[in-house]
Amino acid sequence: MTTWLNMSLQDGASPIMEQLVFFHDHVLMIMLMITTTVSYMMITLIRNKQTSRFMLEGQMIETTWTIAPAIILVFIAMPSLRLLYLMDEVHNPSLTLKAVGHQWYWSYEYSDFTKLEFDSYMIPQEEQQESTFRLLDTDNRIVLPMNSPIRMIVTAADVLHSWTIPSLGVKTDATPGRLNQTSFSISRPGILYGQCSEICGANHSFMPITIESVPAKHFIDWVSKMSE
Ligand SMILES: [Cu+2]
Prior knowledge:
The protein has helices at 15-47, 59-88, 216-226; strands spanning 95-102, 105-110, 117-120, 142-145, 150-156, 161-165, 170-174, 180-184, 190-195, 208-214. It is of the alpha+beta class. A hairpin with a 6-residue loop joins strand 2 and strand 3. InterPro entries: CcO_II, CcO_II-like_C, CcO_II_C, Copper_CuA, Cupredoxin, Cyt_c_oxidase_su2, Cyt_c_oxidase_su2_TM_dom, Cyt_c_oxidase_su2_TM_sf. One of its GO terms (biological process) is ATP synthesis coupled electron transport.
């Protein structure tokens, strides 16, 4: 989750998010080089009188400053597309979780098991404890096994919502009458937080998402406890 003074992206909790952070830094370095070059050129132009009675055209420089940006764009587009298609891939998932957005809570269905479904409401302010985060914690957390490929099916029951976990690099629109699919695998144990990311009505800010990432054995224990 985001902590105090965290200006950058959250730490990646999935391989995809780690790659997204690398890509973000990569693009930032390219932007730094472009900004430096352009500012150097602008300052030089302001401080010098560049007049020549004989120079009418410059084929070489024009070719260069047309082709160079095109090459730079390729260096951004290639890793970007690679990531885009990697995120689209659903590789042999070991578990499917269905999230349904409602005004204003999420409900979850573990369709691999019978009768394993629950609603997940935000913990209201008057029930806060020392250990809970305001506007982020829910009464029923999603429990998921770490290091296993998980398929998410996201949909909504009333209006548009968006199921989001920033540290997993996941953001999927929840649309009524439509199933959207995404996948991830969580690389470490812990609690991951997210919030609905589609302006969905008055209590839009009060339908958080909480994932408890646990070792597979604990997950099996939780499943057997829940389906008793
Ligand atoms: Cu919503």
